[in-house]
Amino acid sequence: MIKYKLPLLLLLLPFAASLHAQQKPALSWKDLSKWNYIRSNTNSMSPNGRWMAWADGPTEGDLQLIIRKTLDTTSFKYPIGATPTGASFTKDTKFAAFKVSPKDAEAKAARKTMRPTYDKLMLVSLPGNEKTTFEKVRNFSFSGESPEWIVIQFAGPENASRDKDAPKGTDILLYHLATKASYNIGNVSEFSFNKAGTKLAYIIDANGQNGNGIFIRDMKTGLTTAIENDKASYKGINWNEKGDAFALLKSNKNEKYKEDVFTVIGVHKLAENKPHKVSYSGIDQAGFPKNMGVSSNSNPFWSDDQSTLFFGISSLEKKEEKKTDSIAKVKTDPAKAKGTPAKADTVAKTKTDVKLATPVNKADIEKPDMIIWNWQDKRLQSAQQTQEIRDKNYSFLSSYSIADKKFSQLADSNMRSVMVAPKQLYAIGYDNSSYELMSNLDGQSYTDIYLIDLKTGMKKRIFEKYYSSGRGGLNVSPSGTWASYYNDGVFYSMNLATQQQYNLTGKIKSSFIDQLDDHNVSKPATPNFGWSADSKYIFIRDNYDLWKISADGKNVAAVSDNWKSKKIAVQNKYRIYPDEKGIDLSKDQYFGIFNTENKKSGIAILEAGKTNLKPLFLDDNSYVGFSKASDAKVFAYVKQNNQKSPEVYVTSSTTISPAKQITTNTPDQEKYAWSSGVKLINYVSANGDSLQAALYLPANYQEGKSYPTITYIYERLTDELNAYTMPGFPGGGFNKAMYNSNGYAVLMPDIKYKLNDPGMSSVACVVPAVKAAIATGIVDEKRVAIHGHSWGGYQTSFLITQTNIFKAAAAGAPLTNMISMYSLIYWNSGGTNQAIFESSQGRLTPGYWDNWDAFARNSPVYHIKKVQTPLLLLHNDKDGAVDYTQGIEYYNGLRRLNKPVVMITYRGENHGIAKLPNRKDYAVRMMEYFDYMLKDKLAPDWWAKGVNRLDMEKHLDERAFEAEE
């Protein structure tokens, strides 16, 4: 027997070793600090499509920028410090430039000592990789479509004054890329190239305003022209699209006014090399409103024909006039006094009796510190406080006609929102002043819409009490002569010259009411993709198919061929031509497509001159970021799925196939256990609705084995079936990738809501989803937990009052009492929650006084005695979305009933956790809690027995030390 045991053991050892080698470790929270990934917002492609750039690096620490050829594997890597940044390319792609920030350790040390830090600029030649570095850089820009120059603006001295009136100018360097010749210009506060890069406009802002002004440099000849010099400040250079005119603002001190007085300056006729300047301040000029001035908070711009300047105006407060003392000496003329009898109380005192009244200083008067809330206020006082700076800086759009020197105020205190239409023939004005109060109460938005003829100044109301909820508003054509709008389930068009209206979709046998929008909005619209470039057609989607409709509605054609029958929706249009105005049908146009049934997605093409969309591919991936090189037929897109992180693919084929992967994202993923995939579950809710749920499988999943499961809820989530979850420290604590890696299945069901039953709707949808998931055998019915944050936190808090299917729950920032929450304030905006309840996510209307049963029926606190599920509650004390009292109320109710609950509060944090140490802490605590509840691990002390306030500092020190080890 002994003789055979040893060979048998030896035979089993390689097999056991093989199994051990296959078992990859789970990703831990400590690993996340080193997790390397691409920062998606740094992706950029060169104009000729031959180079791509992106930044990657660890979650914490220093990053690198990668510039790589798209045609081969040539690539360069550059350290860029702790701040992610992208690269800019010259028009000819011979050079790239990017900022380099301080290293992570340097930045942290500087923050502790309050020392300033500075960025560098790295200039790289391609493909030679010759590097030139510039220190202490604030800003830079290549010379537009001209590939010859780069302008670099340097930071000011450390001891520079930070006073608002201090000069803002610093040195700029004009660097010629080919010859490396450079030219320094001092005291520049702002600079901007025109589109062609042939002219550079810049502003001088120097000490004592010496030499201040606006200048233009011809980049070919080097000739510099002073457009204006003055003891003034200038800002806001805004070039027109052609690059032959620009506008800006000038400010001067004025003894009559408390603030600077601004002038709008327009510079044009630059194509003729004879720049002409127009200045307009409006002050004391005919037609200009009193107590108003040119606003400093809006950028002025030219009309296309350079006949008109558009700019904002705002209130301008005069200084108070000095007042004489109310009691003064009275000199009496004896001769006049004899003939002028005086009343006893008005007789002048003798010289020795005269007393001067002591002037009263207003600043010395003690005033009450108070707020008056009036029921007639259109906006709550809290909203007015939150939006005070915006209100003070609000600009009313106006215009100045150059030829006849005529000023026109387009927007006013009632019609605050005015949009200038393309070609500047018309403007569209929105006046909701008559409906603003009610809109802030019930969330239903109405407005009066005006058509403004910019040539005559005539204003005409074209819609009264237009319902603007659910994608309401006018969409003006590129020609500026047509507009489309939506009303009561139908899209219409209007000829702006005649105001003739046309029905666009009423005759189409399809619904243009969004079938998935279950908010309390009347007939919400499906998407309007906009006008063709020639303004002859408009593209509007029903719930699936895209329609091409003539401007007058007489010709209608489906661009997609009955895709509804296949459950394929035209999801979006990709904007890949930077200067395109409208959908240019002479060019290939690309659209995102999506199968609502199996969640496959892809890209379709509407070829130039063709009438039908052609799918290029549709598969089990998610596609985002589709783009085109500006000067070449080179296309890039980002592809991802649940298991594979987002990667950039590049192709020169208009059919987008074949494409080559050029990035390597998340290189460490292979080292760790990862989700084994995802299953889409179809089920029927308790309300009889056919719904779906996504069940993400744990790492090392074995068929026939059941697993602890986290049910994560919000609203509809399955459309993100193929989206990748990047491991990280989230603001709400939960990260799907982390839980899958650590052996949890994750269930994400869709929720469909019935008006006046948001909580009961979640029960009707989530409980059947959990049961359907359990029926697959993957979910261990005895080890299912639930988690949600914000609206998901509310539903989590409510679900545990209605079902005991969950062994544990974690609710972040939950609404818990719909009655008290209804009239509380959404502090981030200052508005009340009433509008959110009645027309948006709350889905309860009208107020609880007329709907008490529904409010109580859907409030967790009113069913609190039925809670048997342990709850981890997160609510921060500065939550500006869901009032902190909602968490306190639920916590104290559960505590009073001696039910297991722990509430965590991060002091100073808002609705989501922002500070990295807090995000780390909560992510770890949540998993500790679920590991205890669902995996039978030891209960963490903070859950089992709590932490005494006096011991909190020690507790936090110990946990921080453990995290660093």
CATH superfamily of the domain at 673-816 and 868-964: Alpha/Beta hydrolase fold, catalytic domain
Unreliable sequence segments: 1-21, 326-354
Q: Strands of the biggest beta sheet: in what spatial order? A: 5-6-7-8-9-10-11-12-13-14
CATH architecture of the domain at 673-816 and 868-964: 3-Layer(aba) Sandwich
Helix tally? Answer: 17
The major pleated sheet works out as: 10 strands, antiparallel
| CATH class division of the domain at 673-816 and 868-964 | Alpha Beta
Distance from first to last alpha carbon = 48 Å
Q: In percent terms, what proportion of residues is strand? A: 25-35%
Give me the Rg, rounded: 34 Å
Helix content: 10-25%
Question: Shape, please?
Answer: globular
Kindly name the structural category.
alpha+beta
How many strands? 53
Could you tell me the mean pLDDT? 92
- The CATH topology assignment of the domain at 673-816 and 868-964 is Rossmann fold
